[in-house]
Amino acid sequence: MATHVVEKDLAYALKENLRVISALVVRTAATRFGESRFGIVWTLAEPAAYVGVYIFLHAFVKEAVPFGDSALLFLLSGVFGFRMTRGIARKAEKGIAQNQPMLTYPLVRPLDTIVSAFILEAIIWLIICALFILFMAHVLDRKIIVFPMEFATCILAILYFAFSLALFNAVIGTLVPLWDTLFSMMSMPLMLISGVFFVPSQLPPDFQAVISWNPFLHCVEWFRSTTYLDYLTILDKGYLLAVSTGLLMTGLAAERIYRNRIMSE
């Protein structure tokens, strides 16, 4: 009898939590796109702009393609490996700040705001990724994802890392406001050493050892390795998953310990 009551209470709690998160997803979407007709267009155009600028510069200086026979494919695989990860994490980590008034409701917790922002951003970027893959397949007239199962695993790993990073940054950024500024300043250097514009395995071993500490590099390497049959990678899946788990556990613990402080900020 007691077990049945516990299961019923748990089911009710989960149902209520799903309702809260669903409502927050709708609210976050309305906040992001409701005030601008061009919000969705810009979300799609931003990664295209990155690639467009590079392709233009690449053609201008007549530089050889770092790998393969298509500068477009090489750059898009790198841009998406980094921008999808950073884009999802960046928007999701703002969940607490954007939904601060909602934290006055008893059922809404800081973690719910991050989860809802993550769900919305993940859906957006998965749609963008699918569109660009279809676009590349049409332009290059060939199969883009050569290892479908590995690609699916890669996407799951990227989402896991993005959520863990978002949770960690959201909680620490609320407790230490300077952290958000510092991490934002690190975004460009992190991208430059993530292998977006070069092939890490072609660098000297000493330099590889340094940049391999950057978890974004492994997101890029994993994504790119699914688009080439013979791409030589320095990907360390275990390291990326370990970093993700460490960030997740730290973020969850800090959110629980400092929940009252976060909600009163």
CA-CA gap between termini: 42 Å
Number of helices, where a helix is a run of at least 4 consecutive DSSP H or I residues? 11
Give a short account of the largest sheet: none
Mean pLDDT across all residues, rounded? 82
What is the succession of H and E elements?
A: HHHHHHHHHHH
Helix content: over 70%
Shape designation: globular
Subunit organisation of the chains: single chain
Low-confidence stretches: none
Note the beta-strand portion. Answer: under 5%
Structural class: mainly alpha
Instruction: Using the CA coordinates, give the radius of gyration.
Output: 20 Å
Number of strands: 0
Question: Which SSEs are present, and which pair or pack?
Answer:
Layout: H1 2-33, H2 39-61, H3 71-92, H4 95-98, H5 110-140, H6 148-175, H7 178-192, H8 205-211, H9 215-225, H10 237-257, H11 259-264
Helix pairs in contact: 1-5, 2-3, 3-5, 3-6, 3-9, 5-6, 6-7, 6-10, 9-10
What report would you give on this structure?
The protein is mostly helical. The chain contains eleven helices and no strands. It starts with a helix and ends with a helix. The mean pLDDT is 82.
TL;DR of this structure?
This protein has 265 residues and is mostly helical. Helices cover 75% and strands 0% of the residues.
Search tags:
265 residues; mainly alpha; 75% helix
